Amino acid sequence: MVITVIIFIMLFLIDQLSKYLSQLFLVQGSTTTFIPHVISFNLTYNQGAAFSSFDNTGWLLIIVSSVATIVLAYYCTKNNWKHEKYKSFLLTMIMAGCVGNLYDRIIMNISSLNLSDGRPGVVDMIQFNFIDFIWEKIFKSPFAICNIADVYLVVGLILFAIDLLFFADRRKKKYEASYN
After folding, report:
1. Helices in the chain by DSSP H: which ranges?
2. Residue from 85, 66, 104, 91 nearest 155 by CA
3. From CA 48, how far away is CA 43, in angstroms rounded?
4. Which of 10, 99, 104, 148 has minimal Cβ neighbours within 10 Å of its Cβ?
5. In whole angstroms, what is the distance from residue 151 CA to residue 98 CA?
6. Nearest Cα to Cα of residue 16 among 106, 130, 90, 85
7. Cβ-based neighbour number of residue 22 at 10 Å
8. Percent of the chain predicted with pLDDT > 70
9. Cα(144)–Cα(132) distance, rounded to whole angstroms?
10. pLDDT tens-place string over residues 40-92
11. How many Å apart are CA 127 and CA 145, to the nearest integer?
12. Which of 130 and 83 is assigned the larger pLDDT?
């Protein structure tokens, strides 16, 4: 459990630091190329979920994100880092992504009530140009601009699904065989 907490805090702080630095050094609506044709930075604020879906449903997204965080926290407490490092890390990474964006949504909604300066939405800044190019050719619209928390969520969920589908049974059989 201690490992989960340490990794979670590190990942959460990296996400929040990246959002803070983006707001400090990037200009909204202006693109800064980092690696040409691969990745750029473009400060935007998303008031919805992925691809700006469910726009302006902040409190609903806070409730959904809170429930997801509670479920993830429960599974993180049940994990055995000694025997399931990969699964434990992925669940921790997914939870850090969920909480990173949940934090922004809470700040955004407090801001809308004029209780703090807050943020006008979830801070997004990473633009994957190579994905954007392909996405626009297929769907005729730009790919989403995302943040570190989104990367944690997407990469974590994809790797978790791959692990669950292809490797979890093999690992379980190996683990059971070693104790029989």
Report:
1. 2-25, 58-78, 85-112, 129-139, 148-166, 168-178
2. 91
3. 15
4. 10
5. 10
6. 106
7. 21
8. 87
9. 8
10. 999 998 876 654 555 556 678 888 889 999 999 998 888 878 878 888 999 99
11. 5
12. 130
